[in-house]
Write a structure and sequence with these properties.
alpha/beta, Rossmann fold, 7 strands, about 45% helix, binds NADP nicotinamide-adenine-dinucleotide phosphate
């Protein structure tokens, strides 16, 4: 039996990935601050289970307690494969470097970098202890690979996720665990994150007009289309390239 832990399931890409896992008969353990009743219905229709854990991944003690609870619950499933999709993230703070305060930077890195690394640590260790196959996915961004005026926090946290992915994957190769860790760049999608981006002041985010244009010209992809590409990659398990940064654009 396969199970998937997905973060950021209340909306956006995380909701779509969770939905597609459920529709393919995989039990989903979802984490976000807000619950998602739509996924409960999808689970019911597909006779699989959706467990939701309300947790602020920005708070270290809350996150640690939640992981403990989740691993305990997963054990009852005797899983053959465990997927982890580190999807939850924030774009803020958006502003020039000299305008960023300590707290907002700290909150950003806790959610976008520390939380995915901590979850990967814990789930990898857990899967190894169960002798279960493990596939970890870190959702990244094109911002990891190009500097963007006003996005110093986001560009840096996503760049760190790419290098973390490659380093963790290298260890799995050297240790011959058979576990795989990849990153997935979903491209631009029509979500709340894009709304936040479009609401930025031009002085804070120089490319704001370009991003407004993406919406006006229908260039933002639907999260279910993008989630479907990731699920196809995961379904072809033998072909998954450990440590690869997958780009959705290569599939269109
Ligand atoms: N949208 C794009 O164009 C785009 C482009 C490239 C990469 N990405 C990446 O794709 C992923 C999904 O983005 P999205 O656009 O779907 O974002 P979104 O619509 O803003 O959704 C973010 C999700 O993360 C959860 N989340 C936020 N803060 C959290 C916290 N402190 N604790 C727990 N959960 C939290 C939210 O749930 P709650 O608020 O309920 O907690 C929500 O479910 C992110 O990694 C993002 O960086 C997006």
């Amino acid at each position: 039996m396969k199970i998937a832990l997905v973060t950021g399931v209340s909306k956006g890409l995380g909701e779509s990935i969770a939905k597609l896992f459920l529709e393919s008969g995989i039990h989903v353990f979802g984490v976000s601050r807000n619950i998602n009743t739509r996924l409960e219905k999808v689970a019911k229709t597909n006779t699989v289970n959706f467990h939701h854990y309300s947790c602020d991944l920005g708070k270290t003690s809350e996150m640690a307690q939640t992981v403990e609870l989740i691993t305990k619950d997963i054990t009852t499933y005797n899983p053959t494969v465990i997927y982890l999709v580190n999807n939850a993230a924030m774009i803020e703070p958006i502003n020039r470097v000299m305008e960023l305060d300590h707290q907002s930077l700290s909150d950003h890195f806790q959610l976008n970098a520390v939380a995915p690394m901590f979850l990967m640590n814990q789930l990898l260790k857990f899967a190894t202890s169960l002798n279960t196959s493990f596939i970890g996915v870190n959702i990244t961004s094109g911002a990891a690979e190009r500097p963007i005026f006003g996005w110093s926090a986001y560009c840096s946290s996503k760049a760190s996720i790419n290098m973390y992915t490659q380093t963790a994957a290298l260890e799995q190769d050297v240790l011959k665990t058979g576990h795989k860790i990849i990153a997935f760049n979903p491209g631009i999608m029509d979500t709340n994150m894009q709304e936040t981006i479009r609401s930025s002041a031009k002085e804070a985010f120089a490319e704001v007009d370009k991003f407004k244009g993406y919406k006006e010209n229908n260039q933002l992809r639907h999260t279910e289309t993008v989630g479907g590409v990731l699920i196809d990659i995961l379904n072809d398990e033998a072909s998954i390239e450990n440590g690869k940064i997958y780009h959705v654009n290569e599939y269109f």
